[in-house]
Amino acid sequence: MNIYQENGYLDRKEYLNSIAESYGVSHLVVHDLANLLGEEEDFDGLLNSIEDYILMIEDNYGNNL
User: Which of 7, 20, 33, 34 has CA atoms 20 to 30 A from the CA of 54?
Assistant: First the structure.
């Protein structure tokens, strides 16, 4: 069993898609950030980066993600 399965996902792809849906962010953005940061950051750094991305977008463009 891997870390994704331990957290209720089939694999990394399903986990990343779930994050995109939960945060209301494009799947492409989530997958690009995840690939940039690496798997070791999926449950920490990735989430922080997505939150930072959302704040940046809201500051610059309003709530239109």
Answer: 7
Among 52, 40, 42, smallest CA distance to 17 is for: 42
Question: b/e map of 33-44 (b: 16 or more CB within 10 Å)?
Answer: bbeeeeeeebee
Q: Is the separation of the CB atoms in 53 and 33 below 8 Å?
A: yes
What CA–CA distance (Å, rounded) separates 42 from 47? Answer: 7
Give me the tens of pLDDT residue by residue for the chain, a chain 65 residues long: 999 999 999 999 999 999 999 999 999 999 999 999 999 999 999 999 999 999 999 998 876 55
The gap from C-alpha 1 to its chain's centroid, in whole angstroms, comes to: 21
Retrieve residue 12's tokens.
Answer: 């990394």
